[in-house]
Amino acid sequence: MKTLTKLTTVETKLLVREPGAVFSLLIPLFILVVFGGSITEGDTVLLPIAVTLAVGMVGLYLLPTTLATYRERGILRRLSVTPVSPGNLLTVQLLLQLVLTVAAVSVLLAVGVGFLGAHTPRAPHFLMTCLFGTAAMFSVGLLIAALAPNGRSANGFGVLLFFPLAYLGGLMQPVEHMPDILALAGGYTPMGALRQSLHNVWSGAGPTPLSLLTMAVYAVVISLVAARFFRWE
Amino acid sequence: MAIIEVHELGKGYDGHTVLDRISFSVAEGEVFGILGPNGAGKTTAVECVEGLRRPDSGTVRVLGLDPFRQGPELREHIGVQLQHTQLPETIKAWEALDLYASFYDSPRDWRALLEQWDLADKRNTRFAKLSGGQKQRLFIALALVGNPKVTFLDELTAGLDPQARRATWELVKRIRAEGVTVVLVSHFMDEAEELCDRVAVLDRGRIVAVDSPAGLIDGVDTEYRMTFRLMDANGPDPGDLLGNLDEVASVSRTGDLVVVSGRGDFATAVTACLARERVLVSDLRIDKRTLDDAFIALTGRSLQA
After folding, report:
1. Is A74 within 8 Å of B50 when comparing Cβ atoms?
2. Which of residues 84-143 of A touch B (CB under 8 A)?
3. What is the rounded CA–CA span in Å between residue B100 and residue A54?
4. What is the ipTM of this complex?
5. Is B78 on the interface with A (CB under 8 A)?
6. Of the residues A30, A130, A138, A196, which has the fewest C-beta atoms closer than 10 A?
7. Under 8 Å between Cβ of B58 and A87
8. CATH number of the domain located at residue range(s) B224-288 in this protein
9. Which of these CATH numbers, 3.10.105.10, 3.90.950.10, 3.40.630.30, 3.40.50.300, describes B2-218?
10. Which residues of chain A neighbour B86 with C-beta distances below 8 Å?
């Protein structure tokens, strides 16, 4: 217990010192505030985009880069010659990145609802959507961490995936303006499914079973593949 | 008492033999060197002993435990410095020690370790900002923080400048003085000669010799030289005196400078003979035979090449 407490404390400090963590908090917030001035009350588009962006940045950038760097620097290997299993470090990291995601989403919600006049979404719908979306995005991040040989290339994979996914997901331009086929395909990407579900949540309809299923399939299948390919060293 | 027992340890990757049934044992309190060129299998051998790798064949016991099956129990009592491992860039020296101390049941006081390893004024420095020598000292401190009975140091001085290497040697002597058994993996002959009580010489996955550095050197049967100057150039000719000694191969003289070459303990025979004949000499020098010579004799090639 003493070990896990200490591990969590130290890893939290390291995460706070990581510029990527700060960016994951600030960039979505920046976008929300900048575009928030021009939206009408009861907007159902901007907050879903900002929340999806936050979840995506943590899941596709921060998580894989951190884990791949730990492996690259031999930190997981070094732990495996102590009484503490390196699995503990992975678990603690995963939980902390989850906490960071919750924090980022909470800030967006507080600002969006508190200052920009967005409606408070129905809690069960919102929480369920965020849970599925985060699980899907994190499993993609875990797959990147499993396949990338080092932190730098994990970061590269993240960037490579992030922009196409953000475009397909309707984060760059409204889905209505996208070619039909791309818009349709986008609904089956992790970001697209999450953004679409959040949009439905704010519209009052609630997430569609298809979107939830899409995210669940990503979460399960991709994490299994990631686990299959993960290497400790 | 043997603290480490390795018997017929074999390990291969993809049909390629890395360790060919090696055996050795390490006694409590000694500095035991595993010496050999890059690719000889040193790191693989140590990783099997640490429990990081599973041997294909043979048995390994460390403190009476099987490193692979009883790893968690064993790891309470061993301290390891691994080659090519780093810490997170932003972790501070004290945080790393504090964290690693929390992994063990009865750790040492990490504050004392910071003092002892000359890192006290670097306690709040981030890992990335430490110098090579400071990082190395931190790694040693991390290997000791669990209060281990055995420490494994793998290529401890690789990449350090000569001064930092010498300083690191002193640190290893300190670990030994504290009664901690040290297994030192190195491809530096001078390092092994300076630090190790006994050395296993590993070459292409086989152990070609296990002995003290002095024993290995004495085992080398090659000619080497001693030189001296005659105080009295008109005295008896050293060629006549020394040429008849069994151990001496040749004697040559240029003015008052005499060069004698021979095998084994010829230097003792020569000095005894000179003393008996009351020949006074100055500038007596004996070419030092090194572990490198021993290595060449054992393996047929130089380690440093």
Report:
1. no
2. 84
3. 33
4. 0.88
5. yes
6. A30
7. no
8. 3.30.70.100
9. 3.40.50.300
10. 73-75
